[in-house]
Each structure stands twice: as structure tokens, then as C-alpha cells.
Amino acid sequence: MRVLKFILKLLIGCFLCGLIIGIAGYAYYSKDLPDVATLKDVRLQTPMQVLSKDGELIAIFGERRRTPLKYDEIPPIVVNAVIATEDARFNEHFGIDPIGIVRAMYIGVKQKGFSQGGSTITQQVAKNFFLTPEKSISRKVKEMILAIRMEKELSKEEIMALYLNMINFGSRAYGVAAAAYTFFGKTPDQLTIDEAALLAGLPNAPSAFNPISHPDRALTRRNWVLSRMLDQSYITQAQFDEAIKKPLSVSYHSPQIEFSAPYVAEMARQFMYDKFGENAYTDGYKVYTTISKTDQIAATEAVQKNIIDYDIRHGYRGAEKILWKNNEPPLNAEQIQQALDKYICYNQMCPGVVMQSSDTEAKVVLSDKSDIKILFAGMKWARPFISDNQQGAFPKKVSDTLKPGQLIWVKKSGDNWDLAQIPAVNAALVSLDSDNGAIKAIVGGYDYNLSKFNRATQALRQLGSNIKPFIYTATLEQGLTMATLLNDAPIVRTSGSQIWQPKNSPPNYAGPLRLRIGLGMSKNVMMVRALRAIGIDYAASYLERFGFPKENISHNESLALGSASFTPLQVARAYSVIVNGGYLISPYLIEKIEENNGDRVIYQHQPLIACHNCQDDEVSNDSKHLSLNNVEDVANESGNEEPEQANLKSDDKLILPDINDANKTNDNTPKYAPHTINSGIAFIMKDGLRSIVFGGSDWQGTAWRVKALGRKDVGGKTGTTNQSKDVWFSGFGGNIVTTVWMGFDDHRRELGRTFRAEAGAVTANPVWVDYMKVALKDVPVKEDVQPENVISVTIDQKTGLLPNPGAKTMSEYFIKGTEPTTYATQEVGTSVTDSQGNTSELF
Questions:
Q1: How far is CA 768 from the centre of its chain?
Q2: More confident residue, 580 or 30
Q3: 375 class by beta-carbon count within 10 Å (0-12 exposed, 13-18 middle, 19+ buried)
Q4: Which residue has the higher pLDDT, 157 or 620?
């Protein structure tokens, strides 16, 4: 009895000591622990998504792939598989599992090593959200305390949802939704029993059990999970027998990108990073852009196709590299693969090495070790490139061009392979909604993987004749009209030893012509005379009304020929002013930004729109107010006074939002863009741009190829700089304005000629037409409303004055008060009578 009392006292003493130690330990370890209630509003690391305006995925940015799900979106079979694998008593315990802890300790003592931690799912959630992965007693105690608190604060469903959305399944897949897609290409609700079992077995050791890297281990692990599910009655024996017979059937599925728009994605990514830092990649933002899949694909294909067409016209520049020559031993297979591994495919062009070559074919090995053949039909285009203006003769047989040891580029064409080459020339395209500035499509170059430089927003290039509509608009403001005669005759200006002699292209001159014809036929000398008529300084200042940065506007007569440099985006914006009735819209790329995987809209763009129903035609001429991309202001903000860099910054400022204005997004009142050009003048100039397409009764406009669209509401202007270093086409159809530029990144290199001179009309215009055929497919033909200050008058075609009877006439638009009031002088010939009495006219 005395022994029993001693033992009882000892036990009571141990209990009290343990209780005191436990209370003290709890107080010590819990004093700095975080509040588990924060898990109710936890933000899981979720990648940023860039989407089209219709919600189609363009790109994902972020280290971890994760798509958070609510508990009721997770199928029960997945929940049961995880419970059976990780925590059989999950629904019964209070955060920690004493039975599991005792079992883990027993196994540890028995095996002389603690390989099983006895952690519950709740503990794993606590560890992953709040603690470090270190293995120590203090961390384990904190984990248990947090788990107990979590069970009091959160429901079992909330804890399970956190676990299945948080846990790492391997291959960068975090959460069951990402894992289901990564390994099976499925959503969780589509998973079968065997697939759910496979996923449930991965979190224990994601790398070791990865079904792609270690299929045998993964299969063994899956079958063990299935047996656990059977033991705990989550599946029947029949279900077990069926599931365990199935093969893994896994493969890696990358994120399902709907279409590629890398320049768009990078613009959105850079903006989000500038605003949110590294959190941009983890906070689950959804960035909706203004582009559509149809338009963007059409723009990309138009740019790439016409770049390749240009490249082929100018000949084959030869092999990318010579690995061995005819008199040298060939490389072995391993050496060839090492050489090919240094290259990647661009726009379906892939590297290959010529192994054999004959008159009729060449045998080529690719980087995937496959063998292909190139027949003569697939390389007969390959005239040797001599210069941008000269090419050699067409090859007569395959071996004229392709020889063993050459590392070349090839491209699949139907069932055959063609010789290809990475183009040296580049291009850009920007397409806007002229009414509100929404970017419909943007292409910054041939291939983003070749060059990340965005020529649409960053390349400052000379405008050439693409500038003429803006200067002619300034002349209309000063009282000239589309009927005004300007002399199409050579100009020579000397200043000391300097001679400036602008020329037409082609160098043809027709004497006095109406301004409309000078615009339509792009007469350079007439443009210079128009500039002289209004003054260089006035014209330069007037260009700011179109949003052009004043720092890039030259103040000399070469301005008339497009010596100023602007980005394609700035040019497209400027043409929008003419098309929309004189309003300086602001191009924008981001439509809205959602936070927390779509739970909350933090930015909704409200564009400045052109007002088509406004009666007030008051025009603002305050350039500081007009130019939203004022270079001086941006340079002061950035501390960079260099005009080119300032412009790049300003374009970014135009097309990307300031989300600090998010508090204004609930205001649905229309906001109108600055009215910078008189609506009547804009109407007349827009009609003048149509003339460049449709021409006149006795002359053809330079943009006649646009007639292929079969629409009457189209117009545009070509542009070519000296020596064809830059070629442009800017134009409109409906409410869509599109600008295309093509040239070499090296400003010194000219586009040259092949069968013809490379110019805006023949080089850039086809890109525009190919794109607009798609972009305008479902856009109704737009009928412009004639402004009240515009009248139509019948004029004499030759003089632009009121016509005499019998004269060739046409209808012309005028601003009221500028229409002709005098009649053309009637030309009368001189009659001559010969000795026989016959009369004839002398002219």
C-alpha cells in the first residue's frame, strides 16, 4: 500500500510538473506566433495572367503555377485520396493526432530513426504558411500550437481547401488544379480514381515520385494510395481492381496559351512589375488587354509573311555557319548535335546541317536528330545576295547552293521542307480604334525571341511622305483648299556651297496641280511649296495638335519631306485625329486589372473618346494640354533629357494606365478627348486620304492597292524616306486606323530594289492590306456626316475655280468662306486659214 501511494504521488507530481512545463512551454513558444485568423483572407502565390479583351490567355508570368479553388470545386475523390494518404483521422482530430504521434515515435524507436513526423494536414498548412522548413523541436512545438488554434478558427473544409491549393505537386505545379492540368491536361472534376490517387501521393516527395521523371516510383506510390483508399472504404474492391490496372498515362502540359502576342505580354508584364514589383508574379493579377485574338493573329501573320517575301526577293545570304568544307572530314553525330543545340527555332524556322547534296536534293539532319530532304523546288528561290540592290542568278540545281557541312535554316511547307533564312529586315504594326484609342493589335518585330526591341512603341524612324497629310491639314487651317493650285516643278535652293534640291519620286513634274492631286500622287515639290506658304514654324507647331512631341519636329524645309522621326504608335495616333473628326485620343493597351484571381477589379480604363455628336466645334490649340506624351514633361520626370529616350517613356505613358486613378472607375460619364483640329478640316483631309486610294479621272493615287478591300470608307498614305531606309503605310477603314513601318534596325541600311524600288506603296502597303482584310471583316462601312461648316462645290478640274460651260468638272469640299468665287479663264485657241481656205486651231 505504501508503494502504491508513492507511485500515485510520483505520477501526480510528474503530471503537475508536466502540466507546468507544458503551460510554460506553451506560453514561451506561442508569444510571437502569428494570428491564424489571417488564413481566412490569405493570398496564395498565384501567377499573373495576361489576357485578351475576350479573356483568352496570352501569357503567364510567375514561378509557381496555381489556380486556387473553393472547397466545393474540389471533387470528393481527391479529398478522400489525400485524407487516406496524409491524415486518416483528419475529420476527428483537433489539429494534432496523438495516435499518429505515438505511432511515429514507436516506429522511430524501433527503426532507430525518426522518418515519420506524424504531422496532420492542419500542421502541414501551419508549417507552410507560417514557419520555416527547419527540423527542430521548437519549430515542431510551434507547428502544433498553430494547428490547434487553426482548428478552433477554421472549419475542416477551409483547412483542406488551403492545403489542396497550397501544396507542391512537382513540375512547378502548386495546388491540385495546377497539378491536374500539368500531368493530365484536365480540370480536377475530370480526374478518375487512379489519377486522384497519383496526385495524392505526390506532396510527400514531389521530386522523388514525379510521374514524368520517375514513372516506376510514381506507379508504386499510386498503388499504395489506392490500397489506403480501399482500407478506409473510400473506394470499393471493384473500383480498386479497375484503378490499379490502369497505366499512369501522364504527360507534361504547359499552360494553355490561346494565342501568342509576346510584345503585348511583355508590355503588360513590364507595367505590372513597375507598379507591384515581385508581387506582380505572385498575387494572382489578371490583366485584360484591348487586343483580340483574330486581329492580333492577322497582324502577326501579315508582318511575318511580308518580311519573308521581302527577304526572298533580295536573295539568299548563305549558310548560317560552315561546320566543315569539302576537303575536310565531317563532324560526327555528337559534334553536329552540339552545334545545333546552340540554336533554337524561330517562327517555325529550325536549324539543320546539310549531310549530302546532289543536283536534285539535299539531305539534312535537324536538332531532334530527324533526317529530312530539301528538293530543288524548295530552294530554287535562293539567288545569291550581293547587295540590297543586286542579286545573283537563280540556282539551276540544289548543289549550286547547298553543300555538306553547312548549318542552314529550314521550314516545313505542307509535306515538304524548304530552305529558309532568318530575315535581316524588320517591321512593326499598330492598329487603333480611332474613336477611343484602344489598341486592337500591335506587333513589334518579326519574332520576339530574335529581338525583344518593340519597334511599334520604341523605334524612332523618319516619316517620309507619311507626314504630308498633317502638314496639308495645317495649310487648310491657313486658308488653302484642296482645289488650290501648287506648282509641281523642280526646286533648287542654294546656300553658299550647299544645294538642296528636293525631287519627286518618280522624278516627273506636271506644272500647276490641285492640292488634292499633289497629296494623292505624293508630289514632294508641291509639299515644299505648301510648307513655304504657311511658314515652317507654324507647320511645326501645328504638328503638336496630332500629339507629335515637339522635340522631334525639325524646323526646316526638309520637314515637308518627313525628316522628323516618330514611333509607329505616335503616327497611328496622329492619323486617328484626322479619322475621328479632330480629337486627340490616347492609345491604351490595358482594359482592366483584376486582383485575387478575379475577385476584385482594381482598375477599369475609361478612355477619352471622340465626340461625334458634339455641336460645339471649339478647338483647343494649347499644345501643353494636347500632347499627353509631352516629351519635356516626361524627361523632367525621368531625369533624362535625351529626346529619343524621353519619347520611349512617353509612349509607355500613353498606352499603360495609372492604376492610382482606380477610384475614378465608377464614374461612367463620357470623357471627351481634346478637340485639336476643326471637324470640317479633318473631314476634308480624311476625304483627301481616300483620294490617295481611288485617285481621280485622269490620275492614280499611290495607295491604289487598298481598293482590293472592296470598301469605300478606306484611305491612307504611303511614306518613303531617302534611299528607302524607312517605308510606311498609314490608313483607315471604318473606325480602325493602322500604321505599318518596315526597314532595317541599322538606320544606315537602305531597303534597296529588286525588280522595283522598295517603297511604302509596294513594301509596307501589302502588310496593311493583308491585316485590314481580317480586321475589317465584320466592321460595317462607315458613312461620315458632313460637318455644317463644310460645303460641296462643283469646280473646274484643271484650275480649281468655278467652271465654264463644257469644262471637265468635279465636286470638291471647302470650309465655308474658302470656296472659289471666280470662274476659270476660258482657253481660246488661235485660228489660222491657209491659202486653200482651210481653218485650223493652234494650241
A1: 18
A2: 580
A3: middle
A4: 157
CATH H-level, domain 317-420: superfamily: Nucleic acid-binding proteins (2.40.50.140)
The alpha carbons of the chain give a radius of gyration, in whole angstroms, of 37
Task: Count CB neighbours of 743 within 10 A.
Answer: 26
> Regarding the domain delimited by 66-244, which CATH topology (the fold level of the hierarchy) does it fall under?
Penicillin binding protein transpeptidase fold (1.10.3810)
Where is 650: in which H helix or E strand?
Answer: helix 643-655
Contacts 24+ apart (CB under 8 A), 617-625: 617/675, 617/678, 617/679, 617/680, 617/787, 617/789, 618/675, 619/582, 619/675, 619/676, 619/677, 619/678, 620/674, 620/675, 620/676, 621/545, 621/676, 623/541, 623/544, 623/545, 623/550, 625/674
- Band (pLDDT 50/70/90 cuts) for residue 151 is confident
CB 485 within 8 A of CB 512: yes
Residues marked active site are found at 86, 465
**Residue among 56, 549, 58, 575 nearest 267 (CA):** 58
pLDDT at 15 over 90: no
- Can you read off the three cell numbers belonging to residue 28? 514561451
Q: Maximum CA pair distance of the chain? A: 169
Least confident of 427-441, 467-481, 601-615, 821-835: 821-835
Res. 648: pLDDT tops 50:
no
d(CA 139, CA 137): 5
**Does the domain formed by 442-564+631-669+677-775 have CATH 3.90.25.10?**
no
Instruction: Please state the φ and ψ torsions of residue 675, each to the nearest 5 degrees.
Output: -90, 105
Grid coordinates of 701: 493615287
Q: Pairing state of beta strands 671-672 and 608-609?
A: parallel
The highest-confidence range among 163-172, 496-505, 593-602, 644-653, by mean pLDDT, is: 163-172
Range of weakest confidence among 303-307, 727-731, 778-782: 778-782
pLDDT reading at 839 higher than 60: no
Tell me if the bond preceding 384 is cis, omega within 30° of 0: no
Q: Are 409 and 327 a contacting pair, CB within 8 Å?
A: no
Per DSSP, the residues of 139-196 read HHHHHHHHHHHHHHHS-HHHHHHHHHHH-EEETTEESHHHHHHHHHS--GGG--HHHH
Any residues with CB less than 8 A from the CB of 678 and at least 6 apart, and which? 477, 582, 617, 619, 789, 815
The domain spans of the chain are 1-32, 66-244, 317-420, 442-564+631-669+677-775, 790-843
The pLDDT tens digits for 209-256 are 999 999 999 999 999 999 999 999 999 999 999 999 999 999 999 888
Q: How confident is the model at residue 519 (pLDDT cuts 50, 70, 90)?
A: very high
| pTM score, whole prediction | 0.86
pLDDT in tens, 463-516: 999 999 999 999 999 999 999 999 999 999 887 778 889 999 889 999 999 999
Are the CB atoms for 396 and 403 separated by under 8 Å?
Answer: no
Q: Do domains 317-420 and 442-564+631-669+677-775 have the same CATH topology?
A: no
Q: 754 near 313, Cβ under 8 Å?
A: yes
